[in-house]
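Incident log, entry 3
Record: Cytochrome c oxidase subunit 6B1 (136 residues)
Problem: checksum mismatch between cached and fresh output.
Input:
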Amino acid sequence: MKYPRTTQEQSKERHGIPASFAHRVRTFPKRTRLQSSQDSCRLVLDPESKMSETIQEKLNNYKTAPFDARFPNTNQTRNCYQNYVDYHRCNKALEAKGQDLTPCQWYMRVYKSLCPNSWVSRWDEQIENGSFAGKI
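Fresh output:
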């Protein structure tokens, strides 16, 4: 009696993998997949997975710096520095006008997610000493 073929076997045949080599091809678990959107990729969990709700909530609420077309490369050093400088420029401009500083929090959130803490502390010290290289 021949058993019905599984979907994994069918997909291997569809991709041109002979049945004799099918056992050598690694298949990935079904519970996770990547879903790409216009700006980013995020992990999507199938309802079949048995992950606790608290971890799912953390994954859904996790936010980081979005893609910035001015910095398309993997090295995000300039992006980090530019957002740090933009944050301080924004603070300086809005404090001079006496306005609310909440729009500047965007820049702070981005540079804190991209920049190492040692750089930020060094730049803060340089701003206090008046020796920071950037124009704020």
